[in-house]
Write a structure and sequence with these properties.
single chain, alpha+beta, 23% helix
Length: 270
């Protein structure tokens, strides 16, 4: 496998040094975006979120960031990826031992591409995670940082229960999101999603859905999920209907009308 690293396409095995803070401390951010016909979709939106995350963590942005869209296309061509995904990772870079970042950072910018189907709409079964909570008060809840340990714990819990994903609550027991996706519900015919203040990541697809659809942002509890007519999870790569939560059927245990209508959104150009 090859990756694009700081301006060059190289073998992945040579990508990162052992003193990189991204490896040692999870000191970085990332974006995952779809590739269709060898071209990344919605790059401007993902770039804006990457810039926002870098600002929160005070990671300097390298000049080559401006050429990254073309770099993704070049890497996709080199790897033969016509459809799939690109992961853009920005790490603070090497540093001495310790928590405090160096005053002068040399950031690492890396891109990897993967073959896959964009717009997977297969129904899934989920649980409400009990092993961990999402900290809605942390600024990290608003960025895609490279420390995903809470999500990993929750996904492991789901896997042990024979399910595909886990819904994560915040420290006030309100619904935040899934381990790698935003969550929407249809309750009494109304499309509802948790507000960002409850720990929901400002997802790209989430924002796109809220423009044409009449979506209400409000705090949701577990009981709201149990009585929902529809539940679906959204990411840049998919809109997936939930047919079961904590062993309880959701709706008719198949994709509902809203999720069906939005299923192709990850493939739409705008």
């Amino acid at each position: 496998m090859k990756v694009w690293l700081n301006g060059k396409i190289i073998n992945a095995a040579r990508a990162l040094d052992a003193d990189n803070r991204g490896v040692l401390l999870g000191d970085g951010i990332f974006e995952t975006l779809p590739i269709i016909d060898g071209t990344p979709l919605r790059w401007a939106r993902h770039l804006a979120r990457l810039r926002h995350g870098a600002k929160i963590l005070s990671i300097p942005l390298p000049d080559i960031l401006e050429n990254l869209e073309a770099a993704i296309c070049d890497l996709a061509a080199a790897q033969g990826v016509a459809e799939g995904s690109a992961r853009v990772t920005l790490l603070r870079g090497p540093g001495p031992r310790g928590i405090l970042p160096p005053r002068q950072s040399t950031p690492t910018l890396m891109v990897a591409v993967y073959v896959g189907v964009v717009g997977n709409a297969e129904p899934i079964r989920v649980i409400v995670a009990q092993s961990t909570r999402r900290n809605a008060r942390s600024p990290l809840s608003q960025i895609k940082n490279t420390n995903y340990l809470d999500a990993i714990l929750a996904r492991q819990e789901a896997d042990s229960a024979g399910c595909d994903d886990a819904v994560m609550l915040n420290t006030s027991d309100a619904v935040a999101e899934a381990t790698g996706a935003n969550i929407f519900c249809v309750i009494g015919g109304e499309i509802v999603t948790p507000p960002l203040s409850d720990g929901a990541l400002p997802g790209i697809t989430r924002a796109r859905i809220m423009v044409p659809e009449a979506v209400v942002e409000r705090t949701l509890g577990v009981d709201d999920l149990y009585r929902a007519e529809e539940i679906f999870l959204t990411s840049s790569l998919s809109v997936r209907p939930v047919i079961e939560i904590d062993g309880r059927a959701v709706g008719a245990k198949r994709a509902g009308p809203v999720a069906t209508r939005l299923a192709d959104m990850p493939r739409r150009a705008t």
